[in-house]
Amino acid sequence: MKIVLAASAAFLALGTASYAADAIMSVPSAPAAAPVAAAYNWSGFYVGAFGGVTTGDYDFTGTDGTDTLDLSVSGSGFLGGAQIGYDQQFGQLVFGTVADIAATNHEAEITAAVPGFGAVQAESTLKYLGTVRARAGFAMDDLLIYAHGGYAYGETEQTLSATGIGSVSTDNDVKHGFAVGAGVEYAVTDTISFQTEYSYTDLGDDEIFNAGGVSIAEDLSFHAVKVGVNFRF
């Protein structure tokens, strides 16, 4: 009888151990961690194309020695061009430079009566616009928010006529000034990004006519909003 009880106890212990081992073996293992995608890096060169709209003022001032001319003319138009740039990323900070050139038809026309000058008709058109700017931004993976600023230049063509001084057609006038603003850029792939940018451009005040005791100066400043695509490499 003792032998039977001992054998039963041995079989029971063996069965319990076997069940525990099976239970341990049947516990599912933890799933492998999914690979983490590397953050987008904005470092490198890029080239791109853009288009946009402009709005702003042409200010004409002048004198004939006695009377003064003071006209502010609202202008608007479109622009489109190409750009090339380079960015370098440090952590989440991005610094870069960009140069662009654009054709534009930003223009204004006005007819007004000015004491001493009579009926005045003025027209001015910005033929092209170029900039060389620095930019600094904050990257959130494939999204970049940035500010920009730097040198701007452009060429205007003016026609001015007044009953007091006759018709004045000036030569094309190259202006120099600055551009500042901000933008957002989003990378849709490793090599393609889309961009939306705002700029305020001031091309300064310079003399466009001086003859017969009459001098006239033009001051051009305007806002621009543009969208573009960049190809990065």
TrEMBL record:
* Gene3D superfamilies recorded: 2.40.160.20
A cellular component term from Gene Ontology for this protein is: cell outer membrane
Q: What is this protein called?
A: Porin family protein
Q: Which organism is it from?
A: Georhizobium profundi
Give the highest taxon in the source lineage: Bacteria
> What keywords is this UniProt entry annotated with?
Cell outer membrane, Membrane, Signal
Instruction: Say which family it is in.
Output: Belongs to the Omp25/RopB family.
| Signal peptide limits | 1-20
Database matches in Pfam families: OMP_b-brl
The residues covered by the Outer membrane protein beta-barrel domain are: 32-233
| Keyword field contains tRNA processing | no
Kindly give the PANTHER family that the UniProt entry links to this protein.
BLL7405 PROTEIN
